[in-house]
Design brief:
The protein is α/β, with parallel strands linked by helices. The protein has two domains: about 140 residues, Aspartate Aminotransferase, domain 1; about 260 residues, Aspartate Aminotransferase, domain 2, CATH 3.40.640.10. It has twelve helices and 15 strands. Helix 2 packs antiparallel against helix 9. The longest helix is centred in the last third of the chain and has 19 residues. The two termini are about 25 Å apart.
Length: about 450
């Protein structure tokens, strides 16, 4: 039996697609199969061979230009010159680990903590979001004395032993930890309840009660505040607060996984959790903070982190190294200097408006939701809300092949287009994307 991962296999190249490839692409895919482990996946039935990036655009080996509507890792745009300059300058001076003194890590920490609630006042650094979430779980367990972690039903939080055990999006081939509990996604499109905050808080309490009944002490709730892998659950603004109140009432901590909604992406706020008026106990970030340079962070309340750090020394060899910190500082400066939070708000609002207009023409669009430059475009039967995964997969292939737009899908049914471009995405790019979606959904072949 072949197991499938909802986050890895929904939009992916598989062996049965090889016969349709051109010779150059087939050589590369064959070589990958020979030298890389079988766990790796490529996007698309016809994989893209990329050789260059600039801002919100990418070019393949044949010189074809693509609009990138998916890559948040290059958060401020591919090959941003200020990041390149900062990394190059620091690399020419020094790159070493964090057991020597260096100004970069201290200056950046002071600057990034200014963007946080005042209660969140300590920083630690790693290289990946998986490492940050792994450490966050360890800190939460040390602080609370508990083991139980609650996540949303389709969440993804990393690939380490601890984080994969809290990442149901990795699929049935990756068993969840026995101390992990899942709550249904806060899906305003499908959940009919007068108060989403009350509904979601009740789901959290139910799982805490289940843990207690089975002798598992609750440690914390780990969530990406826009629930991106669940299909982008952005509204109503503020619904998360009641859930966090329940977490604290039961002695747990709230870990805000900001790898995807952080760094001005939602437009409403610099951090995704800010939209909901909550103060996390721990905040984690990933590679978008360095525009793709391997760097991640954990930011925490002093008392929460002290329960761990007063007992256990922690060392991540190159987490927070001078080069990575130079990249992270450049990203922070660009977000400020280019006013990218306001840019994300304004461009995202217009994009969402134009996508919503398409609903008048195409009955197959079930819902358009999101915040800033993070939008979920759900393809489903309008009357029954039945997800249309086949259509979604056909659409992203058509966007890639005929319109040269790169995106992917999310959600448990693989039917939500996850529109999450670099923040360099401009008003002028909206016509390219919306026009391509209109033409694609007007093509009867998409429904075959």
């Amino acid at each position: 039996m072949v197991t499938r991962s909802t986050i890895m296999d929904t939009n992916s190249f598989r062996a049965e697609h090889a016969a349709a490839l051109d010779s150059d692409t087939k050589i590369l895919t064959d070589k990958r199969g020979e030298v890389l482990g079988e766990s790796y996946r490529l996007f698309y039935r016809n994989p893209v061979h990329l050789v260059k990036g600039e801002g919100q655009y990418l070019w393949d080996a044949n010189g074809t230009k693509y609009l990138d509507v998916y890559n948040n890792v290059a958060s401020i745009g591919h090959c941003h010159p200020r990041v390149i300059d900062a990394v190059t300058a620091q690399m020419q001076l020094l790159n070493t680990h964090t057991r020597y003194l260096h100004e970069n890590i201290l200056n950046y920490s002071e600057n990034i903590l200014k963007t946080m609630p005042s209660e969140v006042n300590r920083a630690m650094y790693m290289c990946t979001g998986s490492e940050a979430n792994d450490l966050a779980i360890r800190v939460a367990r040390e602080y609370t004395g508990g083991m139980g972690i609650i996540v949303s039903q389709e969440s993804y939080h990393g690939t380490s032993e601890l984080t994969s055990g809290c990442s149901p999006a990795l699929g049935t081939g990756q068993a969840l930890a026995t101390t992990t509990r899942c709550v249904p996604a806060p899906d305003q499109y499908r959940v009919e309840h007068a108060d989403m905050g009350d509904w979601f808080a009740a789901q959290i309490q139910t799982q805490i009660d289940d843990m207690k009944a089975k002798g598992i002490k609750f440690a914390g709730f780990l969530a990406d505040s826009i629930f991106s892998s669940d299909g982008v659950m952005s509204h109503p603004i503020g619904f998360l607060k009641k859930a966090v109140d329940v977490v604290h009432k039961n002695g747990g901590v709230f870990i805000a996984d900001e790898v995807q909604p952080g760094f001005a992406r939602t437009g409403d706020a610099f951090w995704g959790f800010e939209r909901h008026g909550v103060v996390p106990d721990i905040v984690t970030t990933g590679k978008p903070m360095g525009n793709g340079i391997p760097v991640s962070g954990l930011f925490a309340k002093h008392d929460v982190l002290s329960a761990f750090s007063d007992q256990i020394p922690y060392f991540n060899t190159f987490g927070g190294n001078p080069v990575s910190m130079a990249a992270a500082q450049a990203v922070l400066d660009v977000i400020h200097d280019e006013n990218l939070q306001q840019h994300s708000y304004e461009v995202g609002a217009l994009l969402k408006k134009e996508l919503t207009e398409l609903m008048k023409k195409h009955e197959c669009i079930g819902d358009v939701r999101g915040a800033g430059l993070f939008i979920g475009f759900e393809l489903a039967d309008r009357a029954s809300k039945t997800p249309n995964k086949r259509l979604a997969l056909n659409v992203i292939e058509e966007l890639r092949n005929q319109h040269h737009i790169l995106t992917s899908v999310a959600g448990p049914h693989g039917n939500v287009l996850k529109l999450r471009p670099p923040l360099a995405f401009q008003m002028s790019d909206i016509d390219w994307l919306v026009g391509a979606l209109d033409k694609t959904l007007s093509n009867p072949k998409m429904f075959d």
